[in-house]
Amino acid sequence: MKAEIGHVGKTWQLTGADGKRYDSTQAGSLGGHRRSRIYGRLDCRAALQAIARGGYIAQRVFFLHQADAEAAGYRPCAVCLPQEYAVWKKNKNLIDSRK
């Protein structure tokens, strides 16, 4: 295998703030589930259990930053990001009460 000039190592497919996938030389720091629009830590207990049961992997997405996940319309996981989830829930309830 011949290395390309300027290309070092592996690439990962991440989801950007616009919700579109792109290739990156950096690994994602957060994982998400496309259908449920939830993101969390890569070592999240709930996500790892879902992966072990099967069916979850086809909907798996990865983000470089929390801001990318939120801009793409994903919410924090209540299990592995409880503080971020509490802030999201409070803001959501505030918005819903104004409707």
Describe the structure.
The chain contains three helices and six strands. The chain has helices at 45-53, 66-71, 82-97; strands at 12-15, 21-24, 30-33, 38-41, 60-63, 75-76. The radius of gyration is 16 Å and the shape is globular.
Largest sheet: 4 strands, mixed
How many structural domains does the protein architecture include? 1
Tell me the strand order in the biggest sheet: 5-3-4-6
| CATH fold call | DNA Methylphosphotriester Repair Domain
Keywords: Activator
Domain Ada DNA repair metal-binding: 32-82
GO molecular function: DNA binding; methyltransferase activity; zinc ion binding
InterPro entries: Ada-like_dom_sf, Ada_DNA_repair_Zn-bd
Blueprint of the fold:
Layout: E1 12-15, E2 21-24, E3 30-33, E4 38-41, H1 45-53, E5 60-63, H2 66-71, E6 75-76, H3 82-97
Brief overview:
The protein contains three helices and six strands. The chain has 99 residues and is of the alpha+beta class. It has a single domain (12-97), classed as DNA Methylphosphotriester Repair Domain (3-Layer(aba) Sandwich).
Tags for this model:
DNA Methylphosphotriester Repair Domain, 4-stranded mixed sheet, two-stranded antiparallel sheet, globular, disordered N terminus, Ada_DNA_repair_Zn-bd, methyltransferase activity
